[in-house]
Amino acid sequence: MKKESNSMSNTNQQLPLQGTGGRPPRIIISGGGTGGHIFPAIAIANALKNIDPNTEILFVGANGRMEMEKVPAAGYKIIGLDIQGIQRNSVWKNVMFPVKLINSVRRALNIIRDFKPDAAVGVGGYASGPLLYAASLKNVPYLIQEQNSYAGITNKWLGKNARKICVAFDNMDRFFPAEKIIKTGNPIRRDAVNIAGKHMQALELFKLSAFKKTVLITGGSLGARTLNNSIAAGLDKLIAADVQVIWQTGKFYYKQIIEKLGEEYHPDIKIREFLTRMDLAYAAADIIISRAGAGTIAELCMIKKPVILVPSPNVAEDHQTKNALALVQEDAAAFLADRDAEAKLVDRALELLNDRELQKKLGNNIGKMAMPSADETIARELLKIINNN
Ligand SMILES: CC(=O)N[C@H]1[C@@H](OP(=O)(O)OP(=O)(O)OC[C@H]2O[C@@H](n3ccc(=O)[nH]c3=O)[C@H](O)[C@@H]2O)O[C@H](CO)[C@@H](O)[C@@H]1O
Q: Atom 37, ligand 1: which residue's CA is nearest?
């Protein structure tokens, strides 16, 4: 596996930025479903625009999914395909799947015909499959960005025709042809991790006291039931310890938590459905409790704060545990199994808040694992693909 350095090579910098016929490059970025796919996609788009503001970028997502809201909010155009994933819990819900898939490939072929991209990117999620399949039918070269230490069936299959596969973990040749793999790290939105000098602004936004310790709880882009239950079970202890909390519940759980606790439960407990300013949430936090999604982990490495990871056990091949252990092995994060969280999480958080030495060690070590230029490295790889085509 080839490993890219974090700084750009000269060869890369001298790349002419041109699409077909000398016009600026046109690129389709496809995928989504959760923040873990969408935000890396936006980071790659931002890096492409940073290299050449004239680059034309079109996103292709799945109707009804988070990308249809988050991508326009980031300033990019998106077209939705009428595609869903296989529903494992119900055979009936899958009856329309083959029809939707065929229609999505047709629609993707039309999008490619109209937009005339020089290259495409797939970040995983429902829309990547039909779009990249259509790209291969139309001889449009494409790159895959795999965030996790485990690749799903669709990405493995798409990997066969990909020009490059950008990954964040070692040993990915279990899933993809070794000669196509580049270890770039996961692309992160730079504004989400730019926390320098923002502590006061963060305290103001969340109406927090400068004299109390702050715990940030994040369950990833959708929130996490176990983290919510664990915090709810330990609220009295947190309040008694005079700790303030930014508690991101996730969209699915917010209403029921608010119904139970009330909007203004306690002035030190800030309950939020979704955090649009992750930078300020990270800036406010003394310690962070988090799921172990790949994108969140890449961000945590950049902000260098002490973290307790509680990986979700409900993801393919238990990949969040692998994501978390990669850090734990380097003494870069504390770890708590999902099954122990309700009984132990709040106590562990309070212990960590009182242990300055451990906080320092974890913060230093997690910072060593950051790969800050993944977005730019991937953007340059894509431009190389266009150049060589
Ligand atoms: C349940 C599930 O399937 N999780 C997967 C999903 O996680 P998920 O969608 O949670 O994604 P990640 O943890 O990788 O990233 C979450 C992203 O959402 C942002 N954010 C989060 C909360 C919030 O309130 N505001 C906000 O902006 C974070 O800053 C981060 O950029 O994709 C990841 C990357 O493929 C996988 O590793 C996870 O296993």
A: 293
- Among 55, 103, 113, 54, which residue's Cα sits nearest to residue 80? 103
Q: Whose CA is nearest to atom 36 of ligand 1?
A: 293
Nearest CA owner, ligand 1 atom 23: 275
Q: Is pLDDT above 50 for 7?
A: no
**Ligand 1 centroid to 170 CA: how many Å?**
20
Q: How far is the CA of 293 from the centre of ligand 1 (A)?
A: 5
**Can you read off the two tokens belonging to residue 63?**
């109707």
Per DSSP, the three-state class of 244 is: strand
Question: Is the backbone of residue 122 left (phi > 0), alpha (psi -120 to 50) or beta?
Answer: beta
For position 18, what pLDDT does the model report?
64
At the fourth CATH level, which superfamily is domain 191-367? Glycogen Phosphorylase B; (3.40.50.2000)
Answer for the pair 127, 30: CB distance below 8 angstroms, yes or no.
Answer: yes
Domain ranges of the chain: 2-186+372-388, 191-367
Distance from the Cα of residue 164 to its chain's centroid:
20
Count of residues making up the chain: 389
Report which of residues 224 and 91 the model is more confident about: 224
Q: What stretch of H or E contains 100?
A: helix 97-115
Tell me how far the alpha carbon of residue 142 lies from the centroid of ligand 1, in angstroms. Answer: 24
How far does Cα 356 stand from its chain's mean position? 29
What's the CATH architecture for 2-186+372-388?
3-Layer(aba) Sandwich (3.40)
238-280 confidence digits (pLDDT tens): 999 999 999 999 999 999 999 999 878 999 999 999 999 999 9
- What was the pLDDT predicted at 9? 37
Rounded distance, CA 372 to CA 80, Å?
30
Q: What is the pTM of this model?
A: 0.90
CB 117 within 8 A of CB 60: no
d(Cα 349, Cα 308) in Å, to the nearest integer? 8
Kindly tell me if the per-residue pLDDT of 303 is higher than 50.
yes
Q: Report, in angstroms and rounded to the nearest whole number, the Rg of the chain calculated over CA atoms.
A: 21
Binding residues for UDP-N-acetyl-alpha-D-glucosamine are 34-36, 148, 189, 221, 320
Q: At residue 120, what are phi and psi to the nearest 5 degrees? A: -130, 160
Name the least confident of 21-30, 178-187, 204-213, 343-352. 21-30
Residue 17: predicted pLDDT: 58
Is this prediction's ipTM beyond 0.90? yes
